[in-house]
Amino acid sequence: QAVPAGSHVRLNLQTGDREAKLLESENGKGDTREERRRKRYRDAKHWGGGLSVDVDSDSFTSQELKKALAKMKESEKAERKVRAAHEEEVRKKFRPIEQLKEEFEKLNVKMETDYEIMVKLIGKFNSSASTLDEKVAALYDLEYYVHQV
């Protein structure tokens, strides 16, 4: 969406929305187009850390758009590299659950996920062979697992 030049534009990190704020001059009226142009670079520097981008859709040149697109691609590549390095670091620290299950089976230890335990508890609760005390205990255990979710 095109916004008037000189507007404050920011990304709200809580909601992920882009926000624009129209500025008013000291006399309460909006600035003229030329005044907004003069303020544009100062405001862009303030909000964007030195990145000066003209938000007036009439004043974008193809070169400006190409430069902005190139910067976006560069930053995206850098983000991917950082993300891949982080994922590799996590893979080195942790093992997949399938591998852990195999190792526990070799040790004669049955490892169950919360889901598997919850399915058993629901089965015990629905079973007609279960006593009232077993059903109450199953409900208490289910409450614990559901609370974690």
TrEMBL record:
Domain of life the protein comes from: Eukaryota
Gene Ontology biological-process entries: protein transport
UniProt protein name: SIL1 factor
InterPro entries per UniProt: Hsp70_NEF-Inhibitors
Biased composition (Basic and acidic residues): 16-35
Single GO cellular component term: endoplasmic reticulum
Entry's Gene Ontology molecular function annotations: adenyl-nucleotide exchange factor activity
Gene: Sil1
Keyword terms, alphabetized: Endoplasmic reticulum, Protein transport, Transport
Protein's organism: Nyctibius bracteatus
Disordered, as annotated region: 1-40
